[in-house]
Structure formats: structure tokens, C-alpha cells
Amino acid sequence: MTTQEPATPGAFDGATPRGLGDRIRVWWDSLPRVGQWAVGIPAILLIAFLPIIKPPLLTTTATDFGVVMATFAMTALIAIGLNVVVGQTGLLDLGYVGFYAVGAYVVALLTSPASPLWGSTDHGIFSGPWAWLACVPLAIVITGITGLILGTPTLRVRGDYLAIVTLGFGEIVRLLADNLVDITNGASGLQNVLFPELFTTDKHPDGVFSNANNTPPFNYGVWWFWLGMALVIIVLIVIGNLERSRVGRSWVAIREDEDAAEIMGVPTFKYKLWAFVIGAGIGGLSGAVYAGQVQYVDPKAFTVINSMLFLCAVVLGGQGNKLGVIVGAFVIVYLPARLQGVEVGGQSLSDFKYLFFGLALVVLMIFRPQGLFPARARLVTYGRQVYSAVRHRAPDTTPNEEVSA
User: Fold this and answer.
1) Between 229 and 16, whose confidence is greater?
2) Statement: the pTM of the whole predicted model exceeds 0.90
3) What contacts 59, CB < 8 A, 6 or more positions away?
4) What is the domain extent for residue 138?
5) What distance in Å separates the CA atoms of residue 10 and residue 62, rounded to the nearest whole number?
6) CA angle at residue 198 from 197 to 204, to 5 degrees?
């Protein structure tokens, strides 16, 4: 009877890495927590300074690169929130733009001088330099309540029916914003939405977040990008802790097989409603960032097309993978901005952005249907590691030895 050497820890990762994404994941998982922080912090700082460095091959020409990166940070927030609903829980939401609109209109209605809710330009706490910061928690809470109101009656349906209901919700919000002129100002929109009036100087009397701050290299786009990155990191920490908790495990069980999860004792409706409310709150946060950054809110920004683009970010990046959907958000924001100003035969390539997205989705669904950075079930991965370790440690017995035993 012979024995084999014990398996070297880390020598087997459950499956042979395939492609760059898998190799990066295996390398990252092999690092200790201190090593991950040692790599992650410099990477975050490098990304933060990209709008200032403006790498020649990466920077945009027709649009300020800082503004593009600010839009990317805002879209990344949307993608993370939608990923909670679609990627982690498996609920097909086609009307997520509705939550985005609710968050934007909460800030606009409370701070804009054109808001019909106020009889004067004095909005109390919502008219000072801290007005936007005071509105952000309200936008998150009100949007979360909206998700609760929508999810309570609708999350009892599944699949295509849920997709149709959520699609209708997104359109209802847009139409209400367009038709309730006495509340939302209708198609005219709400102008002069307030923003964080921070770091005011003689050169920047309204602060660095004002659209009037066009001083390179630290223009308003760079500051909004930094604020968006900080919010993305906070949301990632919160969602990451939820993933590792009972809530996250329940979401995965519902996504894989809702009937089996319910039979095993998981209160599926409760955890689906949790996902809906949390995703809605993050959508409201992104809407508040949009309202402060653009300083103008109207119904045309919340169409079904935008909702489909947000879903594309999740599908392209990899459903269920938080960092993957951020990459997807970067793709859908950066590519149109990068192609803007590039002409072929007298035609701007940015006019064909939806064609490019469609082709990219078709190619992705054929060659990599799980997305660029697919989510991996960690329990399955660890199970394969344990199975491999046991198999390598098991003695090499023969049939005769087994019979004699």
C-alpha cells in the first residue's frame, strides 16, 4: 500500500483557470487580506487620479475626461444597486430607472428654486450650503419606501411577469414626472438644483462641485468623480458584508432555485423584498448624485433606453459580481464618450452606440454568456478544494486490500 504526498495548499484551486479574468481571480484569492489591501489601495489611488493624469490612450477628446469619469462613478452606483436585484437575487428588473428618477426628484423638489412645493426661495435647511447633503438620506429612505410599496404586491410573481411589472413601474414614474406639472414642473424640469457647496474660495465662490468650476485639472467633474468613488466604496463594503451574511446566502439560494430554497425553509418573499428595498435605496442614492451633478432634472433622463443600458452594465460585467458590474458600467459610459468626435466617412461613430452595444451583447452571449467577470459560488469552489485535498491524501488501495479489510 502506497501513500501520496499531501496536496500543497493553494496548488489546486478547484478548476484550471481559463482566461485572464479567472487568472486574476485566482491570484487575488491567493493573497492574504493584508496583501489585498496593499494592492487595492494603490490601485484605487491610481484610478482616482486618472482624470488628472489623463493618459493619452485613455482620455476622451470631445468630452472632458473628468466629467466622463464622474458619470461613470454615478453609473457604477446604479449598476451595483441593480446587481443586488438582478445578479445576486435573480429578479429581472426592467424598470430600475424608476428608482433612479425618484431619488433625483426628491433632491430636485426639495432644493430647486423652481420647485412648486415651496412658495418662496427659502427652503429652510434645504436652501443652505448643506442642502444636498441633507437630501441624500431622504432620497435613500424615500426610494427604499418606494421599493417596499412596489415590491410588496409584485414580488409574488416571477420571471417574465415580474419583468413586465417593473418595466411598467419605470414608465409610470416617468409619465407622472411629465404630467404632474403642479408638483414636478412637468417637461420644463427643475433647474438650479443645489449641490455640496464645499471648499468655497474667492476663485470658486460656489465651491468646487459647482458646474462653474472649469479650472483644470481639478474641475467639477474630478470632484464629483472622487465623491462618487467614495460612495461606491461605502456601498461595496455594505453589500459585501450582506453577501457574507445569512441574507446573502438566502439571495444566492433564491437565485439558483427559488422553489428549493423555500422547501429548505428560506423565507423567499422576505429576502426578495429585502433585495428590492436595498437595490431601490442605492438607486435613490445614484439619483441624488445625478441631480446634484447635473443641477437640472427633467423626465427625458429616465427613459426605458437608460434602464436597458443599466441592465447591459450588469450583464456585460457579470451578474452577481460587484466588481464586474463596475467594469460594465465603465464600458457603457466610456465607449460612447471615447467614440464621440471620431468620424468615419463624415459620420460620428457615437451615433451608433446602441448598435455597438447590441453587437457586443450578441458576441458576449455567444462566447461568454456569464459576462466578462462572472460570479463564482465560493462554497462550490471550496468544496472542490476539499475534495481534491482528500483525494490526494487518500491511500492508494487495491481491491484485494479492500476485501481483506
Assistant:
1) 229
2) no
3) 65
4) 60-302
5) 48
6) 80
Which residue shows C-alpha cell 424615500?
A: 142
380, pLDDT greater than 60: no
DSSP conformation class of 372 = S
* The predicted structure's pLDDT at residue 405: 46
Between 370 and 101, the more confident residue is 101
Q: Within a domain: residue 315?
A: no
Cβ atoms of residues 95 and 167 within 8 Å: yes
* Residue whose cell numbers read 442605492: 282
What beta strand segments (E) does 33-192 contain? 190-191
Q: Please state, in angstroms and as integers, the Cα–Cα distance from residue 244 to each residue in 88, 168, 204, 233, 317, following that order.
A: 12, 33, 44, 17, 21
Residue 228 included in any domain: yes
Residue, of 172 and 347, whose pLDDT is higher: 172
Query: Contacts for 359-365 with beta carbons within 8 Å, 24 or more apart?
Result: 360/316, 360/331, 361/312, 361/315, 361/316, 364/315, 364/316
**Mean predicted lDDT score pLDDT of the chain:** 84
Written as one string, the DSSP assignment of 196-233 is: ---S--SS-TT-TTSTT---SSS-HHHHHHHHHHHHHH
Give pLDDT tens digits for 100-137.
999 999 999 999 888 888 766 777 778 878 889 999 99
Look at residue 265 and tell me if it is in a domain.
yes
Q: Output the pLDDT for position 3.
A: 45
Number of domain units in the chain: 1
Higher pLDDT: 206 or 84? It is 84
Q: How far apart are the first and last CA of the chain?
A: 13
Main-chain phi, psi angles of 251, to 5 degrees: -60, -45
Instruction: Please state the length of the chain.
Output: 405
Cβ atoms of 380 and 386 within 8 Å: the answer is no
Q: Flag whether 13 is in a domain.
A: no
C-alpha 404: how far from chain center? 61
